[in-house]
Write a structure and sequence with these properties.
The protein is of the alpha+beta class and about 220 residues long. About 30% of the residues lie in helices and about 30% in strands. It folds into two domains: about 80 residues, no CATH class; about 130 residues, Gcn5-related N-acetyltransferase (GNAT) (Aminopeptidase, 3-Layer(aba) Sandwich). The protein has a ten-stranded mixed beta sheet with strand order 1-3-2-10-4-9-8-7-6-5, sandwiched between helices. The longest helix is centred in the N-terminal third of the chain and has 15 residues. It is elongated. This is N-acetyltransferase domain-containing protein.
Length: about 220
């Protein structure tokens, strides 16, 4: 599951994770970080970019471990990012049948709505890799949109955006629940991730039935 998540988020290829240190496959794209350390089930896995020199590893590992030991909302240096990875294993507080009454698929006929939602975003959202593309439309206005920010042959990573004046009305929750169901129907794993300091996003994930399976920190270089 960790491999599926990392590959979906960073669009990279990893070997099977069966040890504590693995390296991104050299023949594929490389991530912007040098090291990503994930903590799950009481163990840690270090994922190294292929070009990291051996003499750099000790210092990078020390810094990432220090970041993981900090409280979730504590600040880190700008080159370190801490994230929480979640998968859907519980029932959402909003039933799927209710969510599907609020949310609908967005098609080419909705391009003007998407453009009004976010100028210049039509090409991005309607790319095949963003499917399933779902939205909440109220009185001719797109208020919330859910899509696959990353997509692989095994999993999809959720991207969710809601207009500021339409938040806290349950629209993002409905879109998240409907999107996850649509992804699962394809036989893919719907993932959700957020910065460890993003309390609002993590509350949305929990309401949608997602639970934490890994906490990670990565350091760019």
């Amino acid at each position: 599951m960790l491999r599926q998540h990392i590959e979906a988020v960073w669009h990279i290829k990893l070997p099977i994770i069966n040890r504590s240190d693995v390296e991104v496959l050299r023949e594929g794209p490389q991530p912007p970080w040098k090291l990503c350390t994930a903590e799950l089930a009481g163990e840690r896995v270090n994922i190294w970019r292929a070009d990291v020199a051996a003499h750099e590893q000790r210092d990078l590992l020390m810094r990432v471990n220090e970041a993981l030991a900090l409280p979730p909302t504590a600040e880190t240096t700008p080159d370190i990012s801490r994230e929480v990875a979640l998968h859907q294993i519980a029932l959402p507080i909003l039933p799927l049948t209710t969510a599907q009454q609020i949310v609908r698929p967005l098609t080419a006929d909705d391009e003007e709505l998407v453009e009004a939602f976010e100028a210049g975003s039509v090409e991005y959202y309607f790319h095949p890799a963003r499917r399933p593309l779902l939205g909440v439309v109220v009185e001719g206005r797109l208020l919330s949109i859910a899509h696959s920010s990353r997509r692989t042959t095994e999993a999809c990573e959720l991207g969710i955006e809601t207009q500021p004046d339409a938040r806290r009305r349950g629209y993002a929750l409905a879109a998240t629940v409907a999107w996850a169901a649509s992804v699962a129907q394809e036989g893919l794993v719907p993932f959700y991730s957020a910065l460890s300091s993003n309390v609002a996003s993590l509350k949305l994930a929990e309401a949608a039935g997602y639970r934490v399976f890994a906490r990670a920190a990565n350091i760019r270089g």
